[in-house]
Specification:
By secondary structure, this protein is mainly α. Helix content is 72%, strand content 6%. Strands 1-2 form a two-stranded antiparallel sheet. This is MARVEL domain-containing protein. It comes from Pseudopithomyces chartarum.
């Protein structure tokens, strides 16, 4: 713990030690997940617009959550480079994105398994995807959810100095 005296106040700065290999692995997997979700739902948006069909809510939602996740990872990388990544901040934003990913799982599952067969509509539009993109999006929502739980556990362990 480093102490700095500023006037009559004492500022205490605690250093947090993040496990490099786990954090790098998490970053790569989450960039792949967010990028896949962003790309798949962007393709769906183009297909729906080309077919002049109504756009289901899950498509712009997937684009937004994928972009927010990529932005959060970039912010994390900037904070890591400055050695200012705080476990509390990671816990907060990871929990928010975890909830968004769970909603994405539910929305994709409803459209994939219970609702109107949107993946079948993509097949009739003379497009290459035949439902595999929906399955990939569903899988990456699940992978992202699991990895957000993992980073939350890692952040709580870093906060308790279990890696230092």
């Amino acid at each position: 713990m480093a102490r700095t005296v500023v006037g009559s106040a004492v500022v205490v700065r605690e250093k947090y030690f993040w496990p490099d290999a786990q954090l790098n692995f998490w970053t790569i997997i989450m960039l792949a997940s967010a990028g896949t979700i962003l790309g798949v739902f962007s393709e769906f948006l183009m297909i729906q617009n080309r077919m002049r069909q109504e756009v289901p809510w899950i498509i712009p939602y997937g684009i937004t959550v994928g972009a927010l996740t990529i932005i959060w990872i970039v912010v994390m990388l900037i904070l890591i480079a400055q050695r200012r990544l705080l476990p509390g901040v990671v816990l907060l934003f990871s929990f928010i994105l975890l909830v968004l990913f769970i909603a994405g799982i539910i929305g994709t599952a409803l459209n994939l398994f219970a609702g109107p067969n949107i993946s079948g509509q993509c097949s009739t539009a003379d497009e290459e995807p035949t439902g595999q993109c929906w399955n990939a999006a569903f899988a990456f929502w699940i992978i992202g959810t699991v990895f957000f739980v993992w980073i939350m556990v890692m952040a709580s362990q870093v906060n308790q100095n279990q890696y230092g």
